[in-house]
Amino acid sequence: MTETKLSRSPSSQGVLGTQRNRLSQRARRHWLFALVALVSVLFTSSFAFAKPKREEVEKRMQEVVRKVLTDKVGLDDKKADKVAELLKKDREEQRKLREEMRTNRKELKKLLDADSDDQKAYAKAMAALRKNRDDLHKLQNKHYQALSKELTPKQQAKLFQAMQQLQRKLRKALRKHRGE
After folding, report:
1. Helices (H), 68-152
2. 20 to 30 A from 117, CA-CA: which of 48, 75, 79, 100?
3. Does pTM surpass 0.85?
């Protein structure tokens, strides 16, 4: 007796299949945004440990990321180098955008703390925050597109999970370093 395997393409799955596919794409995009943000935070936060030794810290973080790519994600050396370079790309611009966002949030907090009624100042601060956020999302989306071309979905998931673990360790080290 021959057994036939029914395969359903997204178009033959109807509305439910299309919604699942969109959710899956959204979920992948969301976690990759988080991943890019995480890598950026890792590199920018790591500088808090030793600002005078910025190059050393950056080099160490590159080594850690490369080790994650080879050991946890399972990439060969050539692919790990390529992905590490993608993760490193535009990091300075991300750092700059995050710093601007921090400054804009502080300005907004000053307005709120002073109980200001200057609506133009609020509008200006909010517009600046939105612009920074939009610019950061555009940059992150660019990274998402580049990474999705280099890694399989499974490799992307492994990378995401490994980077989350790395972020937790870094946060714990930062809290310990700050004495919290």
Report:
1. 77-88, 91-113, 119-150
2. 100
3. no
